[in-house]
Predict the structure.
Amino acid sequence: MRRLVRLWLGFVLMVFAGAAASVAQDTGAPIQMLLQEHREIIVKSSRKTIGPAINALAESGLEDAQVVLNRWQNKDMWVDKETGLFVFAERGDGDDLRTFDVAGGKEIGTASRRAYKQLKPNSGIRGLIAAALVQFQLTDPERATRVTALRAIERDAEPSHLTALRGAIDAETDSGLKARKMRLERLLTIRFDEDETARIQAIESFSGDLGVDVRAALNPLVATRIEVAEAAPDDAEALVIGAELSRDAAYAILVQRELAQPRILAGAVRETLIANLENGAVAGIEVAMLDTDAARLNAYEMLVRDGRAAPFVSDDDITTALDAVQFYRVYINAPVAVALAAQAALDRIELQVTLNQGADLALDALSLASIYFLAAIGLAITFGVMGVINMAHGEFIMMGAYTGYVVQLFVPDYTLSILLAIPLAFFVTFSAGVAMERLVIRWLYHRPLETLLATFGVSIALQQLAKNIFGTQARPLTAPGWLDGSLVINDIVSISYIRIAIFVMALLFLALFLFVMKRTRLGLEVRAVTQNPRMAASMGINPDKINMLTFGFGSGIAGIAGVAIGLYAKVTSEMGSDYIVQSFMTVVVGGVGNIWGTLLGATLVGSLQKVIEWLNPSNTLAAQTYMILFIILFIQFRPRGIIALRGRAAEA
């Protein structure tokens, strides 16, 4: 008995506490009154009917509205089953709840969980609440919150966001975010505003804008559908049969709209005859008599007269059906004026896109040309000045790249490692070039076939040596962090910082080469040996020593080129073979032994390859083939290249 009494008293106290908690609320608070106005649909929580309640909270201007939406979205809002009042609640001990007033969030007290019903919005309702919260986030004091809100609108915009954006522009203090809000407001105006004039003005403000978001907003506005009627509306674009719409397509539209009979195909005639075969005859004609097309057509026409087959549609019938109607194009997503403005803007944008695609292609060609120039500048020295066909030139590029990789193993600072790798790669490949000239090349001067075979053998040996040391997998040559990313000019034109660095390096080496050849004693002696080796020897110049240094200098530059190329391409034992053919083409097209010719040759070869790849992007092998064919034809008309050299190289 005592136990029953204690349980009863506990129950009474619990009910009293719940009632006291309910009474403690500010039931006259505006936010509570607003919730009570929409209590029925809020408690029901149906995505189809909840919209007015969410919109009322978002547009109320009440300070507590944002908190209510947030807590509702997080399933922290409950409703008193007895009084119908809304509270915030947190789970306490056991079945207890700690309740808080929706007006101000003041704690009410502890109550039984049984006295309340939790609001559990589904994902659809939470999405609607999130959209409503955007307008509060757009004016939040925290910049990060405003940025998040803008990203949410850009990702999934809704008509309600337009009003929120317009109200948040003037209060924005960050100039960058303000410009971003204004741009987004114009985009949403194009999509959602009901005022045609406002939409047209917003469209015209984006004239020539290359942003992908602009085209994404305009393209749906110009979507069309072909309609057919006895007479086209005055504001519709009439279509001419045979010009803008084929005769067959026009008749197919009539058939689809059930305005004309479908055409009977040969297969359908046969199937119809088979379907009407009775006692060895079709329409009273023996099957044995249906051995010609004319007989079969005659039987089919008899079936048509009996109503057992669809009638034939002749060309005259098609002409009559098409002449009786007009086909016209209608815009399906926007009024005509808005759609025409969007089409005009897209036409202007398309022109800008074409021009910028040309600029982007030119940048790509210039970037590739700088890579080919770096790869070929050393070959221009050894092949042009000395007349040596060095098939191992690509392996000197590979050695330079691997030198950069080894340096980075010991120097983790990528910027410092690249600065150290450049002179070290020059030293390594210069030494290798001198050794190769002393051991192999010096015995094969003026014997081009033997030189080609010998250097080809050296290239194979160097490749195998690299495989034995570094393995067959590609090794990373990592660029410094400040070379990550790209220089973005607009949504179409961009170029990576690594390619810019390679272009700058190519210019630096052009300047270095010109300085060495024009301003140093070595350059003077090289030019003398190039022009007339016998006369140079009589002046006290040692041609043998000059050949050695020249070959070493060209090999050293190839090593530096390898460091630069390694930042852009994979470092493997075969990487040199990817550039040897282009290097020879660059030197031959430009003019053997002339640095300016090499520069022009690299520009021509790089540009030609990029243009061919642009015309045929799905087949890079075809691009290489077409490029080689063009070079062969070019050499037929100008065998000495763009800028021919006088002297020993020209006579070789």
